[in-house]
Amino acid sequence: MEKVADIASDIGEYIRQQRSNAKISLRQLSKLAGVSNPYLSQIERGVRKPSAEILQQIAKGLRISAEALYVQAGILDLPTGGPVGDAIRADTELTERQKQVLLDVYESFRRENAAAKPKPVASTPEQATESKESA
To answer: What does pTM read for this prediction?
Structure first.
């Protein structure tokens, strides 16, 4: 039970931090997210653990990815992406939206480069035969 309380506290603190970064009052976020002011206050204080649907509404109000909130709430595992992705996600100077845009651009470059990479050529007759057989 203690772990659930920790997660609720962590997600609440994260939401409060994002709201503060966006310079939005609790009342404003409540209105933007369509969540009652008292309920949102309870979430931020760690008294309540919000559902995925409520997190999605809050993310929309904050203009951040719902995935970021899901990860903070323990609903999703932290995405993998190596040191570059980790560095982007860890940067406290960027908003969640900026982080997501950077990650999207980075991943699109990686996919583009992987698609343009020439396929390895068999160096021995045995490897050429194996390549033909597996195709």
So the answer is: 0.56
